[in-house]
Amino acid sequence: MLRGGENRHHRKGRTAENHRRACRSRFDGSVSFGYSSQGSRNLVSSTHGTCKRKERTMNRNSIQLQNLTKVFRHNVAVHNLSLKVEVGKVYGLVGDNGAGKTTTIKMMLGLLHPTQGMIEVLGYDPWRDGPNLKRLVGYVSEKREMYGWMSVEEILWFNAQFYETWDERYADEICRKMELPKIAKVKQLSRGMRAKLALLLAMGHRPELLILDEPSSGLDAIVRREILENIISVIQTEGRTVFFSSHLLDEVERIADHVGIISRGQLLKDAPLEVLKEKSRRIRVVWNGNMPTTERLHNVRLMQGAGKEEAYYTDDFREDLLDQFKAYQPKCLEVETLSLEEIFVETIRAAKESQWR
User: Fold this and answer.
1) pLDDT tens digit string along 20-74?
2) In the chain, what are the domains?
3) 199/138 Cα distance (integer angstroms)
4) Which residues, including other chains, have CB under 8 Å from residue 316's CB and lie 6 or more apart?
5) Which pTM was predicted?
6) Residue 190 has pLDDT above 50, yes or no
7) What span, in angstroms and rounded, lies between the C-alpha atoms of 187 and 248?
8) How far from 307 is each of 282, 284, 287, 302, 303, CA to CA, in Å?
9) How confident is the model at residue 202 (pLDDT cuts 50, 70, 90)?
10) Dihedrals φ, ψ of 70, to 5°?
11) CB of 33 closer than 8 Å to CB of 41
């Protein structure tokens, strides 16, 4: 017997209930607190904002950000960012460390209040209609924090209590596919297993929108592939909208329809992946004696050069762009496609060079 005559089952049940109450202001799918126009803190009912959202059900965009800015004291984390994500599309936001990816995601979820700008996610304002929005979104944070004392089975049950749409059979199917041991404690799971569990908790209620912040960060190649395959399965079988940030460009290139490149809080590129790759080219040239200065070549930037051999980058390729090279009768002139990683590196490099000037 435990203290006060409680048995272990009753004590755990009470602890779970206490944790459930403590979590109600967190983003884990629970009923959370919203703010009225007067700024007072009130619980928002599940029907709040329903009429407003119904007016927008025909909107083609799951996410719409306009002139979004976030300033922390003297640090501008996100500056004047605008983007749209169409329903059923996969948007990959890529950027270097400290670029503003996580800050942008937190504002989209209502976890951070923007300094200025407009946010609309699934027809809702995340700050005013947070509880309604959170029922429709699955979210995996980079930190993947979970209650370590719970077993996998207990945390699945616990999470299910916050979602009317939780699909137990679907969750069990994913659990088996991911080979997650239900009896194991969360704290005993490996980093890879914890990442799988976090994704399962985000997917179990079949959300309209899946938001993933570095979902495979710090994981080995095998686990990264498993997580990626599960994301692809959701996209292919259910046509869900997915917004994710990552620094693993090969993963983004594999599943994204649309890509945004962000650096120092500014969105440098925002285009469908196919268009981005079609427009971006490397032009290799071997000069035959006469070599133009870089100032004479337009809409290209020197990537590398060694003697008579040079490589140029352009993000606005057209066939007539080659005429300026042909005018110097080079020995060799070749056009090469680029990977997303190469496009990313050149975009960031160009942005830094323009800031130094």
Assistant:
1) 444 433 344 332 222 223 333 232 333 334 444 445 445 689 999 999 999 998 8
2) 46-271 (3.40.50.300), 275-356 (3.30.70)
3) 8
4) 279, 299
5) 0.81
6) yes
7) 27
8) 18, 13, 9, 13, 13
9) very high
10) -135, 125
11) yes
CA–CA gap between residue 187 and residue 152 (Å, rounded): 10
Distance CA 153, CA 150 (A): 8
Query: What is the Cα–Cα distance from 287 to 91, expressed in whole angstroms?
Result: 40
Tell me if 104 sits within 8 A of 81, measured CB to CB.
yes
Q: Is 57 helix (H, G, I), strand (E, B) or coil?
A: coil
Q: CA angle, 226 as apex, 337 and 156 as ends, to 5°? A: 140
**Own/partner pairs, 350-354, CB within 8 angstroms, 24+ separation:** 350/301, 350/313, 351/263, 351/264, 351/266, 351/268, 352/263
Compute the distance between CA of residue 178 and CA of residue 198 in angstroms, rounded to an integer: 11
The per-residue pLDDT of the chain, averaged, comes to 82
For CA atoms 313, 317, 323, 329, the dihedral sign is positive
Would you state the pLDDT for residue 357? 56
Give the tokens for residue 86: 């169409």
Residue 242 host element (H or E):
strand 241-245
